[in-house]
Amino acid sequence: MTSSAVASSIVTTGARLPPLPTIRDLVRLYKLRAIKQLSQNFLMDERLTNKIVRAAGNISDSHVLEVGPGPGGITRSIIKKCPRHLVVVEKDRRFLPTLELLSEASSSSLRMDIVRGDILEYRTENAFPDCPRYDWHDKRAPVHLIGNLPFAISTRLLINWLRDISLKMGAWSYGRASLTLTFQKEVAERIVAPILAENRCRLSVMNQIWSRAELKFMIPGKAFVPKPDVDVGVVSIIPLKTPLTSIHFDVVEKVVRHIFSMRQKYCRRGVANLYPPPLREELTNLTFRLADVDPLARSFQLSTEECLRIAGAYEKLVRSNPEIEYYNYRAQKNKDEDL
Ligand code: SAM
Q1: pLDDT band at 12 (very low <50, low <70, confident <90, very high)
Q2: Ligand 1 pocket by C-beta < 6 Å: which residues?
Q3: Is residue 235 domain-shared with residue 275, that is, in the same domain?
Q4: In which region does residue 316 sit, left (phi positive, over 0), alpha (psi from -120 to 50) or beta (all else)?
Q5: Total domains present in the chain
Q6: CATH code of the domain containing 121
Q7: Residue where a domain terminates, one of 206, 239, 272
Q8: DSSP letters of 138-156?
Q9: Span 148-187, pLDDT tens digits
Q10: CA-atom Rg of the chain in angstroms
């Protein structure tokens, strides 16, 4: 496409932005073909990008981190809401020109920083130097994470962020920052799955301990370019003022992972693998007794509180048997198989 063709299809994208070519035209102009390894599926429909940003609530005058802006569809919708400071983190350098175009066009209304890098390594605690730190029990911090996430790393990112929430680190060093994120539909449904739901899993329990998650709406796969094989759910996550536990995230994560590791079996089976074979039977019995949980329940039948009671019992047993803390069933299994 020539630049005159682009000029002819120029659209006005909002009060604070001068007329810009459409995202679709920019993608064509810069020949931005999607790279599968980076989970690139672009949203070109402005109504949908606006809807995602609306799901984040009032972001005007706030500090916003956008994960994986790509060609900048959601970025435009964010800019139109006039945040005070927008930081975008994008791994693929091919998007820098389209993002710089947005940064220049919006420079009179807000500060926009473009970070070329990997979100898994980005230090969010340094992102917003002008943002005050809010008390956790006070109102929510004016900090929002928004992103049409790369599917390949979305679960890992969510677990990392929940850990940061639990430790009040990263974006949560500013206080209770909120998240508005896309996930593959099935993952979005799992995040909010209540007790007894068939798709309840580790993600559901981990989320519900530290946050309130809400599945806002679905976006059909056909709205993305290229079209993924799945539909997409937009989830909003607000950290709880008072989490359901004070046990360290890493302990809870380990125990909950074991509880859900054998979904079709009694939950006792997964929990037993927390312990080395010589102590397994005795400590597993003790765990369920201390936790007052039915060892013959299936994992999806356990409430969040019951999972936490199991984690509490495990923590107590580690205190009296320190040698079990670093026992790793998987590593041991692999070693045995190598023999
Ligand atoms: N926000 C754009 C949209 O909605 O059209 C693009 C979304 S696309 C699903 C995911 C984006 O995340 C891509 O631009 C991709 O390059 C970027 N990405 C993938 N892995 C990343 C990583 N580790 N760190 C930062 N960005 C990443």
Answers
A1: very low
A2: 38-43, 68-70, 73-74, 89-92, 118-120, 148, 150, 153
A3: no
A4: alpha
A5: 2
A6: 3.40.50.150
A7: 239
A8: SSPPSEEEEE---HHHHHH
A9: 999 999 999 999 999 999 999 999 999 999 999 999 999 9
A10: 23
H-assigned helices in the chain: 3-8, 23-29, 46-55, 73-80, 96-105, 151-167, 185-191, 202-210, 249-259, 267-272, 277-291, 304-320, 329-338
**In the chain, pLDDT over 70 holds for what percent of residues?**
94
Mean pLDDT of 295-302: 97
Assess if residue 244 is contained within a domain: no
Ligand 1 atom closest to 23 (CA) = 5
Cα–Cα distance, 91 to 85 (Å, whole number): 20
Residues 147 and 268 in one domain: no
Domain region containing 265: 249-338
On whether both 222 and 154 belong to a single domain, the answer is yes
**Identity of residue 293:** V
* CATH at 258: 1.10.8.100
Q: How far is the CA of 269 from the centre of ligand 1 (A)?
A: 38
Whether this model's pTM surpasses 0.85: yes
Query: What pLDDT score does 35 carry?
Result: 83
